[in-house]
Amino acid sequence: MLDSRKLSAVVLVGGRSSRMGRDKATLPIAGTTLIERTIAELRREFDDIVVVAAPESIHAATLPALDATLIRDEVAFAGPATALLLGLQASRHDLIFACSCDLPMLNARLAADLCSMLEDQNDAVIPMINDHLQVLHTVYRKRCAATLEAMLARGARSLREFAAMLDVRAVGEQELQRIDPESRSFFNINTPSDYAAAIRWIEFRRK
Predict the structure, then answer these.
(1) Is the pLDDT score of 128 beyond 70?
(2) All domains of the chain, ordered by start, with CATH?
C-alpha cells in the first residue's frame, strides 16, 4: 500500500441533481451530510482532499464547513470534465483519486488500493463494473491535467473520450472484489429510491 501522506483525492460537487430533486452533497445520512461522510471516509487514506463545487452563488448557503480544500467552478453546471481539471490542477500529489460526491458507501481502502495498481507507464487506473469504465471512481496522474485541458480547449467534454486518450489500466470486478465483494463503493445516489436504499444499507451495517 502506498504512503497515504502522498495521495490526493478530488470530490466533484455541483451537478444539477435533476433526478434527485435536491442537492445531493448535503443529503442527511447517518448523522452527517453525504459530502462530509465522503470526506471523512477519504481521510482514512488520503492526506490531500480537494472538493470542486459549483460557483459561490449556488452552494454558499448549503455546503457545510469541510475538512478539505474547497475550490469553485467558474461556471455552474459546466460538467464533470471542467471540474475534474480544476481538481487535478489543485491537487498536491502526483496520484489523484477522483470521484463524485454521491457515493454513500465509498471505500477509501479500495481507492488507495487502486492507486497502488498504477504502473509507471499508466496515466490512470479505472475500475470496470458491468463492462463500463467508472471514470468518476478513478485514479489519475497529475500529468493528465494537460491532456484534459487540451481536450476541453477543442470543445470536447466527455470523460470517456478523455479516458480513451490515456494509457489506462482497467481493473475488473474480480480484482476489485478482494476488497469490495459487493461493489458497494460504486453505488451512487441518483434518485430518492437510491437515497432510501443507501440509508437502509447503512443502518443495517450499523446494527
Answers:
(1) yes
(2) 4-206 (3.90.550.10)
